[in-house]
Amino acid sequence: MSYVHITLPRLLLSLGLIAVAIALSRRSRLGLEGDLVWGALRGAAQLIAIGYVLLLLFNHEHPAWVLLLLAVMLIAAAATSARRVEHGPPRRVLFPRALAAIGAGALVALVPVFAAVVPLHPWYEARYLVPISGMMLSNAMNVVALVFERIFASTSSEADQVEALLALGATPRQALEPQVRATLRAALLPTINGLLTVGLVALPGMMTGQIVSGTAPEQAVRYQIVILYQLVAVAAVAGLVAVAFARRLLFTARAQLVLPQAFAPPAAGHR
Amino acid sequence: MTSVLEGRELVVLREGRRILDGASILIAPGEAVAIEGPSGSGKSTLARALATLVEVDAGTVLFDGQDAREIAPTEFRTRVAFLAQQPAMFAGTVRANLGAGPALHGKSLGDSQARELIVAVGLDESILPREARTLSGGEKQRVALARALANAPEVLILDEPTAALDPDAGERIVALLRALSARGLSLVMVTHVEAHARALGGTRYRCERGRLFAPAAGGLATAVLPS
Question: How far is B137 from chain A (nearest CA, A)?
């Protein structure tokens, strides 16, 4: 089955969509023009690069290359989720924890599926492994970033409450429970909303891609269902692991709250 | 002298500053202790260190002669209660707040105990179904006190319990603390109000630059307490 080819001039035409956003940004004085231009160019460059990498990988499929690419994707996801965390510890502290949380989530979501649901021959078949892993890593990245951002911010603003619970004899787990619950709910909500609205509001990218490139819709749908369930698992596991790491950063071994302000470089007054 | 709570040569460092610089204090069973001192003297950090809520860089806290590090934090803090200057109210009613401490340890607080506690801190029973976060500063302070007492602690440490209150409410809180002390509860109250320290009616110390001094008859700091 054939599909409509996108020629280079037509691709450039789509830049007009970015121009619309830039015009709106200028009109509303949002100051986002630079970010939009940089984002559009960088996004395109990254996709073109991965396109060539995938081409290379499909032609020279070797487990070492596939694993290397997955490792690069994992590191990029961890680095992205560990940055710009206000009220939290520095990036060098968060990065290894983000790596572990995203890695754990991806493993739980990917290994059983590739072992039993979509069995690969050979196991490192890149055209399945790379895009599906990419989706999982991306979702885990967003969840971990949200968890880190929220848990440190809410503990900072509700430190008096956490400490009041500790003073009543709560364990760190008990003292942080309201913040953990709110954080995980917020972090998992986009994934759950995705489950509820799929097919009604949006046709997911992978399914659309498969249908466009000629896969039978009923098979494309089945793939998408599996992926949706994987996204739920990856979000839950990555979120829980990230929360566990955050909790360990927020308390000493003697169950004392490390006030998030203590992570910040400027000296705060102590009584 | 036997002590229920003791701080020995406590040192707390923050960003290169010695917030506590070898402060020592000994609280006898049933004793009421007031720690006075200006803002920034380290008295609040001392209270929090005695409650094991801040990590000390040197020194030891002892409870009933045992090193606090050998006692599980959950157990220590059930027996040594701490009240912050403006205690946080948990979401829910006053009744739910009172039951928070026992609930953490898998116990429940009976209705009659809740009523006894709320009356003991000078409030009316009718306050029990009210939303705790809507109370006035003085009411919150009393509810927090009742909440801490629900754990049946042996020592109560209070950090500036009157600082956020108007003078009348502050005096009533000190009178209440004095009554609790008369019933055998050991008390440590940090305050910058000399009149409140005096009104507590127990031993008074003065905190200056992270050290603790025993006041002489005239009320001025003269000697470092022996450790």
Answer: 15
Chain B CB contacts of A271 under 8 Å are: 19, 39-40, 42-45
**DSSP line for A102-156:** HHHHHHHHHHHIIIIIS--SSTT-HHHHHHHHHHHHHHHHHHHHHHHHHHHHHHH
Chain B CB contacts of A267 under 8 Å are 15
**pTM to 2 decimals?**
0.84
Report ipTM for this prediction: 0.91
Listed by start position, the domains of chain B span: 5-88+152-224
**B34 has which bridge partners?**
B189, B204
Which domain range does residue A220 map to? 61-263
Over residues B91-109, the mean pLDDT reads 95
Nearest in space to B63 (alpha carbons), one of B74, B53, B54, B50: B50
Query: Do A36 and A117 belong to one domain?
Result: no
Distance of CA A73 to the CA centre of its chain: 11
Give percent of chain A above pLDDT 70.
Answer: 94
Give CA–CA dist A137/A124, Å, rounded: 17
Interface residue B151 vs chain A (CB under 8 A): yes
CATH no. for B5-88+152-224: 3.40.50.300
Tell me the three state secondary structure of residue B89.
coil
Helix (H, G, I), strand (E, B) or coil at B52: coil
